Amino acid sequence: MSEITENKKPIHFEQLDALRFLAAFMVVFYHAFDAWAGWFGIPKILAGDDPKTYSWFGEHVHKLIGNWGFGVDLFFLISGFLITYLLIKEKSEKGKINFPKFFLRRIFRIWPLYFFIIAISPFLVHWIGTPTPDYKSALLFYNNFHTIAIEKLGQEPWAFPFAHFWSICIEEHFYLVWPFVVAFIPMRRLPAALITIILASIAFRVYQFSFNSDHSFFPIYLHTLSRIDELTIGGLVAWAHFQKPISLRTPLILRLLLLGILIWSLSVDNLSEWSTIFSLCWKKYFYLGIGGFLMLNFVFNPDVKLRFGSKNLISYLGRCSYGIYLWGNILLPIVITKIMLRFFPSGSGWIYWPVILGASFLIPVITYELLEKPFLKLKSRFAIVKTRA
Question: pLDDT tens across 21-54, in order?
């Protein structure tokens, strides 16, 4: 029998669907642009006198798009916020967390498409002709740790088709411990505990920087302890929203100014460059702070005119964003080797973009409708707090 709460209105942060789509699109476009430039050369509009180098303008565009991996950070913020808010709500209304039902809900949300892709990956690997990847690390959700380990051995770390599964593994690690964090830490002490986790994540990055002579990018970028702070920040915002619902009235001119600062900063900086302890510890919080504040305004500011209803195409694609993210890197080599290089060997960028973006949306929509949706309906049967997809 269902234990679902009897709230008059189900919990639904409607505009988060559009933000999910934005985050997924950023990651897909970043990888697609990088592949395009790598296979077919720098686009003429961005090239300098030497067609193999970027112009001044092109270099800024290249840096801006190259930083769109920031979409993963936005995903982590959103996940941390939603999961923590629902757990806090459940604890508040029921006095406890139902751990089995929490894990079943996460399994029905994440596992069907994830393991479907793993199941068909031997065919994909054979078709594309890439080396055999490590299936065990993907199956057991330690792909991020495996990637760190093999890079340290001097081997190619980004193995098709699991190169981007590291972020899913981090989220799974988060889901494994987070219900216990919310369940067993008193509400009044939860902020202090979350801040402690954030500080511990900073300390871990400092340790990696200080005691690894090569200052490797991989453990700092891929390790769960390096990235848990982003999910935790989302959780901290969830706690604050539960205590007092967030309502923002930030003027449009200030929102545009912050957006301009964010875009300009992303066009001149490299988010993955940590040459000093200061940049390693604090730089990403500058971007998370601005990006997070703009997202909060989009969700909780009634003066924002750009709104997306649940039946809007952008909102629908936001609900498909998990598949958009999972399929993105997998479809790239397929489109390039099986379509572009076979039928359009000269490059034909005007053909590449509609093909790759069309495939990056169409395939996830198909798997969302045929594979994910039935499990999402099953997932709702184990809901404790009423939500609306």
Answer: 999 999 999 999 998 888 888 888 888 888 788 9
Percent of the chain at pLDDT > 90 equals 73
CA 360 – CA 224 distance, rounded (Å) = 27
Structure tokens at 228: 């848990």
**CB neighbour class for 293 (10 Å; exposed up to 12, middle 13-18, buried from 19):** middle
Torsion of CA 167, 169, 170, 171, to 10 degrees: 90
DSSP assignment string, 328-364: HHHHHHHHIIIIIHHH-TT--HHHHHHHHHHHHHHHH
According to the model, what pLDDT value does residue 347 have?
58
Rounded to two decimals, the pTM is: 0.93
CA distance linking residue 265 with residue 273, whole number of Å: 13
And the tokens for 79? 């996940």
- Measured CA to CA, the distance from residue 164 to residue 138 in angstroms comes to 10
- Contacts (Cβ under 8 Å, ≥6 apart) of 100: none
For the chain, the domains span 16-380
Contact 264, 210 (CB under 8 A): no
The torsion angle over the Cα atoms of residues 249, 250, 251 and 252, rounded to 10 degrees, is -110
